[in-house]
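Sample intake sheet
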Amino acid sequence: MCSTGSGGLSELSRRIARLSFCALLLATCILGCSDNGSPMARATFRSLGTLSGYASSQASALSADGIVVAGTSATTAGNRQAFRWTAQQGIVGLEFLSGGSVSSATGASAEGAVIVGSGDANGGNPPTSSAGFRWTAATGLQRIAALPGSALCSASDVSGDGEVVVGTCLQANNTAFRWTAATGPVALSRLGPGSNQQGTATAISRDGSVIAGAGHPVLTGAVIWSAEGSATVLGMLPGDAEAMATGVSSDGLVVIGVSTGRSGTPHAFRWTQQAGMVDLGSGAGGLPGTYAAGISGNGRIIVGWSESQLGDVAQMWDADRGWRALDAVLDLDYATQVPGWTLNRATAISGDGRTIAGIGTNPQGQTEAWIVILPE
């Protein structure tokens, strides 16, 4: 208790000491205190920078422990290069496929030792403007073989052990694939009527058991495939025009995605076998359009963004509180501010839900990747 008594010189000294302590405690609590008066544990915000000679960066994937970030840096002319970031090494470019000049990273394994993405391979056989790749420190970028009859492919995600890559090739229409070193690319079933059959793979569970994406986005909506290739149609929210799954929990039991209304407004959804597809509602502040981009390992936390007239707003969702603007979460829950920054999109979250990566506008007005580390 911060009180004072009366008495001689020694008591005066004690009163001064108490007052000094009270002032320190008050200053600390002004900076941030929890409800019980103890100082709040602060979050950590880090900007990731850009590759040398490049003008912007975007984070797209995180390792399960949040230590490794995968993303893409771009020049003012639009040239892109995939990168891998760690606190120890900083941002490191992954270079390009044979004869290529463009690469983008989209997925990372659980330990961040494997990165997948896409790029041109104009020196490859056959040359192409888009091919999937798998990167390790030992091999560098290695091209993933295309499905038969396809010249354009992309890789979107990788399993936790780094052994299974999923993506999409353009044949007559989009065809989702599952790749391992042993099998090469294996086409997943396409969905939709007649010549409209399609399949697009966007994400894979950490255990490799479930692949998420879409069949024909309008005619069938969101879809998941098992590792053996059987498909389950998730569909879309009632009255909407199209949908696609964008992420899946570690065990494959929770799927997230975006269902788009006929007016073009996107609605983030969360799907489980028990509850089906659930609309996650409007973003913080009543913003109508929401995107779900990343999901924690247990499926309880979702990150993404909402659209506003002033630009995108990074958001975070849980069942108890719904969508909240990420900068407000940092301020109110962790007494952490990011002066000069606008957090536009939260694109990935670590398995434990403590690290979030995304895209923002830095104090110089440039697009730059960032991460936020929440305290335990």
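Comment: The longest strand covers residues 128-136. The chain has two domains: 1-31, 43-373.
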